[in-house]
Amino acid sequence: MGKFRILVKGIVQYKDSFLAVEKWYDDRIFEPYQWEFIDGEMEFGENPERAVARIVAEKTGIPVQVDKPLYTWGFTAGEICTTGIAFLCDAQTDTVVLSEELHNSQWVPKDEIASVITNQAVIKDIEKTGLLNSFDLHDFGKVDLFIEPVD
């Protein structure tokens, strides 16, 4: 029987900027440090909203209010199937205190996200949400998870 895990990702917004963190991936790749949004694994019995708030606070010291889910993603590696849920989170402060697992952080204006977050899979996912568009994310209203239609 296969194993499953659930990741949550916090896209943390403070005023007109989003928090990007630099984390270590693997010294066998060309760029072992990469900029990303904050993510982590849900604990057993934890709901996704509580998990993302906990993970953002543990990794950045920032208390957040979880706004809404933005997109989902998934992949399988070996015998483990991973599903992820990305949430928009509103920061209560812009003061960041990084955990030891993160290397650096920066607040990135909306129009510069694609130049900082270079993982094309993440860029493709956030483009679906309108995050890179010129209008405010709150214009979406409350929505269910974005699910790409199957042809």
Could you describe the 3D structure shown?
By secondary structure, this protein is of the alpha+beta class. Helices cover 18% and strands 41% of the residues. The chain starts with a strand and ends in a 22-residue tail after the last helix.
Could you give a quick summary of the protein structure above?
The protein is an alpha+beta fold and 151 residues long. It has helices at 48-60, 113-116, 120-129; strands at residues 3-14, 17-24, 33-36, 38-41, 64-77, 80-91, 102-109.
Q: Portion of residues in helices? A: 10-25%
Low-confidence stretches: 134-151
Rg over alpha carbons: 15 Å
Shape: globular
Given helix and strand content, the structural type is alpha+beta
Number of helices: 3
Protein topology:
Blueprint lengths: L2 E12 L2 E8 L8 E4 L1 E4 L6 H13 L3 E14 L2 E12 L10 E8 L3 H4 L3 H10 L22
Parallel strand pairs: 1-6
Antiparallel strand pairs: 1-2, 1-4, 2-3, 2-7, 5-6
Describe the structure using short key phrases.
151 residues, alpha+beta, 3 helices, 7 strands, disordered C terminus
